[in-house]
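Students often ask why we bother predicting the structure of a whole assembly rather than each chain alone. The short answer is interfaces. A chain on its own may look different once its partners are present, and contacts between molecules only exist in the joint model. In this exercise we take two input lines together and write out one structure for the complete complex. Read the inputs first and try to guess which parts will touch.
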Amino acid sequence: MAKEKKVEQITDMEVDFAQWFTDVCIKAELVDYSAVKGLFIMRPYGYAIWENIMHTLDRKFKETGHENVAMPMLIPESLLQQEKDHVEGFAPECAWVTVGGSEELPERLCVRPTSETLFCQHWSHVVHSWRDLPCLYNQWCSVLRWEKTTRPFLRGREFLWQEGHTIHATEEEARAETLQMLEIYADTLENDMAMPVIRGDKTEKEKFAGAENTYTVECMMHDHKALQSGTSHYFGDGFAKAFDITFTNKENKLAHPFETSWGMSTRVIGGLIMTHGDNSGLVLPPKIAPIQVIVLPIAAHKPGVTEKAEELVSRLKAAGIRCKGDFSDNSPGWKFANWEMKGVPLRVEIGPKDMEKGQCVAVRRDNGEKIVVALDELETRIPELLNDVQQGLFDKAKANLDSHIFEAHSLEEAKELQETRGGFIKTMWCGDLQCELDMKEKAGMSSRCIPFEQEHLGDTCPICGKPAKHMIYWGVAY
Amino acid sequence: MAKEKKVEQITDMEVDFAQWFTDVCIKAELVDYSAVKGLFIMRPYGYAIWENIMHTLDRKFKETGHENVAMPMLIPESLLQQEKDHVEGFAPECAWVTVGGSEELPERLCVRPTSETLFCQHWSHVVHSWRDLPCLYNQWCSVLRWEKTTRPFLRGREFLWQEGHTIHATEEEARAETLQMLEIYADTLENDMAMPVIRGDKTEKEKFAGAENTYTVECMMHDHKALQSGTSHYFGDGFAKAFDITFTNKENKLAHPFETSWGMSTRVIGGLIMTHGDNSGLVLPPKIAPIQVIVLPIAAHKPGVTEKAEELVSRLKAAGIRCKGDFSDNSPGWKFANWEMKGVPLRVEIGPKDMEKGQCVAVRRDNGEKIVVALDELETRIPELLNDVQQGLFDKAKANLDSHIFEAHSLEEAKELQETRGGFIKTMWCGDLQCELDMKEKAGMSSRCIPFEQEHLGDTCPICGKPAKHMIYWGVAY
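Now the answer. The structure tokens for the assembled complex follow.
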């Protein structure tokens, strides 16, 4: 029977990085386009990656005392307008429901672009006393933001995410929450997704609409552009005041509580692709790979080979490894290419010669290395190799990040470094919006963050020459 | 310090069942109202129940080979119109997005009321050969249906659900899938939620818009009304034809595949409340209760009591039980009422006298029975008691169902039985729509299902006197 499907070539990333990215999204069967621009279908393999990210985050949220809730998807226009900075930030990209059934609605309803206003209204109903605080809530949902240009994972008009929302009796507690959640994002990116991060503060210009502080974890992609991969916002009591949320504190006085919110989205799957992928397709870190090991029988028609391969699959599954065997009648070449495209961290091959020697051959997706594994050591060696791949991916990404951070002492130097080398350019900064706008206009870079780990690179802002307040990272961002 | 919150009385169910239901939803902190009619907020305790239902369903779906995906939330009007029966069924209750950002959209977009059309369009892209079949997909999401009258859980303009969608090479396989998924719903309702079901076929009038067959599991509530608790639809190749989905079969000929869909929603939480609840509030079956055991220290100020209670909590948690201690300074009376309202299956009390005797006292939520448990038997006795509660709830609900099924041989008899006794009325039926409409108009009952377990109650339809085709259940439904 003729093969009706074959693994086709993808564009090399050196030729066209954007096209390579789209090719991987489609050919690895992560997404499909829908009839509406910017709304993507997450296919089983793409969604399985998201499920693994969800599971690790959800576990960490619950371990730190958070509870899941479900807020409505629609926000009345008047409710969205209740906090002035917030509505200014989001109104331009809202999608509006104006008709319900056969009737024009008396007030149009926005499909949530984010849910601060909904949480605030709920809290105004249920928070009365210090005994009701803190509320540590999270929800898993999708949101709509009517963007002009769209790309799978990186920028959708709809995307899946989690949004955490918390409310506290004290500023101190709310600030600690904001940083705790940023650390959970950093941990998930670095230790589960093998994506090294830089932690820092967003500038006034780049912070979330309505926030006092926005903290961010920034990652560097293979093309040396930046991806903001998770943010955590401290709101002070601004939203509480706008929504008239009060509580009786322990001193029996009426007070406004303090809020936070924090989110991570399917955007990080775009980050995974652009951090680890190569010209053969996706490369997935074992900890979040839907399939960690693919077992391929070699010369499967020879007696006992298929049975032996099936036995390996069973043994690996019993050892807690997400493992699958490919017993289809596709050619070995097709299978190699297909499972490489899908980024499965380890391929395990077994054929008649291996069986004679009591071994199998493991092939690492990250570097192509072939490792002979004795069959009686399968359950110990394969998890070790998966750890090696996990570490190998992190190390490679960390080397890419570390070797693409450059120090600049003038706007011109920053611009030239970006154009010739790319990556994150670190400079001192006076803190003024005008210098940030100048950097954007003249060097094409936005501020990524004021890193928690500050360095003293000089005394003055290289853009305006005034005294410097912080060290800051600049970059070209997705 | 004065208690700022106390557990208030709820309306007795015998006085006003509808008000009792609403009181339980609010006082047990399951839901809150949002600013938009019919859109409810699921609070942590309500959502935790849904999470437990999701986990058991999701596990069963995956064990039977299904994969999760995420379809967009918006459907272009032209796409929704592609299958004629389907659009007729859903268009009257769609909510429409007409504005995106600052622009009027060229075509209005419906917020999904269900996603058959989206799955069909996707499959028209990716299904080409028998090798691509079956696709066994599911998604967890919320949908909008612009209902006129709304109630928490039972009828919302937005509700959370799962919708499974599958596509197969043969009719036989699709039909088997439809029944398999109905059986997973029946199993979940009966064995996890302690809600006995009647399985059957919906009539032409009651089936899903666009389906050839709709199978249902019907439950009986405490007030003897019916709740349709899960449905599974067989579509034949109707949708495939409407959406031009074809595949090359094993005989190398172009053919249309066969589809199914099946869904269960947060509506079943309404069912849980109305099946097991009582005048003290919610009663939850242990298998889906967020908290299975609440431990209360009695005379907590006495030396060692709090420590002992904490020890019990740790031991029960270590034994895999979802357990919590209430160490707040609320009075024991308040705590009893609060955890009864929340429906926690077992309350475990420990005080100084119990400690002397090396025991604790377990109190069953379902029947108030007090059981002395020796502390050294804690890890074996508590799971046994939880099983007893689970079984006790099922038995009580089954007795309610069995004692409220009545046989009628005329429309008048059916009407009188419904008015005097309530419940499900079983009769023979000719299969004609007119008799179904007559039963609705004259006796206020809709057809619930043509049960898989048929009985021969006579030869003629008691409504029109023509030859009978089936035995059918009638009832007043939520």
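Check your guess against this: Chain A touches chain B through 59 residues (CB under 8 Å).
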